[in-house]
Automatic annotation (TrEMBL):
Transmembrane segments: none annotated. It is found in: Cell membrane. This is ABC transporter ATP-binding protein. Belongs to the ABC transporter superfamily. It is a peripheral membrane protein. Probably part of an ABC transporter complex. Responsible for energy coupling to the transport system. NCBIfam families: cbiO. One of its GO terms (molecular function) is ATPase-coupled transmembrane transporter activity. It comes from Methanobrevibacter thaueri.
Amino acid sequence: MEQIHLETKNLSFTYPDGTQALKNVNIQIKKGEKIAIMGPNGAGKSTLFSHFNGLTEPTSGHVEIDGEKIVFERDELLKVRQKVGIVFQDPNDQLFAPTVKEDVAFGPMNLGLEYDEVKRRISESLEMVGMSGFEDKTPHHLSGGQQKRVAIAGIVAMRPEIMILDEPTAGLDPEGVDKVLDILNNLNKEGISIVISSHDIEMVNHFADKIYVLYDGQIIASGDKHQIFSDKELLKKAHLKAPVTTEILYKLKEKGFDVDTEKISIDETVEEIIKSKKN
Ligand SMILES: Nc1ncnc2c1ncn2[C@@H]1O[C@H](COP(=O)(O)OP(=O)(O)OP(=O)(O)O)[C@@H](O)[C@H]1O
């Protein structure tokens, strides 16, 4: 049986001002999965993520990591934070040291690792994100895309088993998006489970094995890309747009062509168009 890596059970959270940000959220992330949480602004994605490593304590319900409930005690939380690394949406919330290498060193040093091991992890994780050579630069002098990669390196250096990334490609140019996706895919190949939030349907189309749709604090749908992207009503409700390939196939269908609207990759779409012409 596939191991469940992270699970929320009837997770609910209400902010002190009374905003009910999460309502009975149940999600499961299996070991090695690539998951996307999608939903409109204010749906509760960041609030949900802050529960994944015990930054926020649920109002009711709980989170389990490898079948163990997160316990809100210092030593237990340290263990959880070693397993579950979070990369925030804005690198400015994460990068604060005067140099890139000191920033990446922060996590491993807090784990109490030897100096040589910290050095090894700095160079390994900067190499992994394609930022070797930037060790002595000031993080705030880097471009947005470079800052994002350094923020990822800082988490990678802790060797987490699960990585959570809040909108990892927001604000990046197409090459920056591809670079971050390559990094995430490489980390996943090494066995790390990855959870992202995103509004970028094209990116999610390329990346995720499974999608959860969060709306007004509730999970209103979950499934693979085909199930989610072919549900027009759902996408509309969640303020999402279908991938361009799906839109093209729907338009062809409306015009009487015999096409399968569940095909979503570019290659599959081209095949459908070629086939439909022959029909
Ligand atoms: N500190 C807070 N106090 C009160 N309400 C809050 C607080 N932080 C967030 N909220 C509210 O909780 C709800 C969920 O917010 P959250 O930031 O988790 O959504 P999100 O899906 O991450 O949004 P976005 O896509 O805009 O980043 C929103 O209604 C928001 O206004």
